[in-house]
Amino acid sequence: MTPSDYLSAALLLAGGLFFLAGTVGLLRFPDIYSRLHALTKADNVGLGLTVAGLAVQAESWAVAGKLLLIWALVLLAGASVSYLIAHGALQRGMRPWKR
Amino acid sequence: MQNLYASLALFLLLNLGAGMWRVLRGPTASDRMLAAQLFGTTAVAILLLLAEAAGSAALRDVALVFALLATVTAVAFVRRAWLDPEDENDTE
Amino acid sequence: MISGMLDIVLALALMGLAWGALASADLFKAIVLFIAFGLVMALVWVRLNAPDIALAEAAIGAGLTGALLLAAYAKLHAASPDTDVDNASRVRGIPFILISVLTLLLTAALGYAVWTLPSDGAGLGNDVAANLDRSGVSNPVTAVLLNFRGYDTLLEVMVLLLALLGAWSLGLSSPRREAAPGLVLDTLSRLLVPLLILVAAYLLWVGAHALGGAFQAGAVLAAAGVLMLLAGWRLPAALAALPLRLVLVAGPATFLLLAVITLLLEGRLLQFYPQWAGRLILFIETTATISIGATLIALFLGAPPNREDRQ
């Protein structure tokens, strides 16, 4: 395994960890807003690290660029959709959880 | 490396399954909206990993298209299928 | 070994999701499970080395059908707000046992059939590869869909139009006016719709030699239209009568016209001269993409655009 393989593996594993964190947050957090928070942020970072790990292994700059563009697109879409869900929840009167 | 891609894809698939549990269980309809968000990111990651594992550049196009379509489905969720609070209580 | 486990998990997930989508009492849950099923199905196609079908499944099966089902769910609820909208039918007793036994027999028969397939059988793959240079394209899937088995695709395009006619003939009127989109949805749609149209054009063009094709491109185009509809856009009334219908019919009509012409010229349905085949295929695919996109958008809207005025 070359050094770039090790780097790639490290990035991919870190990405997997963030996905796990997102899922744990989704399952354990007490209300819709915190769950949305965990899902959107952790999963998108996880995807970013996964993309970085794959881009290191990519066979050309064009492929790495395509991977990064896919990530940017998912980031844009994820942020907008999370806003829409949170706004909708607020409009329907869901109160954030208080201790 | 191949094993790493496949095992990560499997891991993400299990993550998806665990997330689905919350989506289906979630007491309010807004929790079900999270399905769209969940699929959007996890599925794209799985597809990109499988693309690298199979060495097929075409699968990256599949990932791109899926990212776009998942967004449109998510917007359809929020704008169409999210019913008013009174109706929510009826269908629970 | 790991890929084997991945395949097993995918297969089990597929069956579990299918069962959940059919047996779930809450209709909304069923729709979510169906979308998940479409996604897992796309992954299964990837594992089976069929990226073209995976693309079609991801675009149409998971994405667009999901949006259609959600729109239908919203309409159901708007139509009868008092009753529970759910998957109410339950089968019990003798019919249940009978159906279960028949299904198990069918599964066993299919499983046996797949198991005894020769493992090196390329099917018709060799014949397709041998004739590929006469088909006008270099992607074997497109060659089969648009040239060697063109009349299957012709019928599929017709069926889609028929589905739209069926939906329109239900006599529904468009529901309440869409609520004004906030700034975020507005901006998102302005950014994504051009990108979706670009990706659709890319898939259409590249279908001749790589992953793509008319149905996939049409589905992505439809996604652009659905996003515009969700963000509050409506077709201007002037375009809603004849121009819309022309666009809807353009694809099937072109295909049918070419079929009739080839039948008259060469005595065989959809037999293209090799030197013309590439251009004809692109022409058919372009009109088909636009028609498929328009048809799916119209299916999402549910009622013909000019019907909302007469209430």
Structure description:
The complex is a heterotrimer of chains A (99), B (92) and C (311). Chain A is mainly α. Chain A is built from three helices and no strands. Helices cover 83% and strands 0% of the residues of chain A. The longest helix of chain A is centred in the last third of the chain and has 31 residues, at 61-91. Chain B is built from four helices and no strands. The longest helix of chain B has 26 residues, at 29-54. In chain B, helix 1 runs antiparallel to helix 2 and helix 2 packs antiparallel against helix 3 (58-81). Chain C folds into two domains: 1-113; 138-311, no CATH class. Chain C has helices at 2-23, 27-47, 51-79, 94-115, 125-131, 140-148, 150-168, 183-206, 214-230, 242-266, 274-301. In chain C, helix 9 runs parallel beside helix 11. The termini of chain C are far apart. The model of chain C has no long low-confidence stretch (mean pLDDT 85). Chains in contact: A-B, A-C, B-C. At the B-C interface, helix 1, helix 2, helix 3 and helix 4 of B face helix 1, helix 2, helix 3, helix 8 and helix 9 of C.
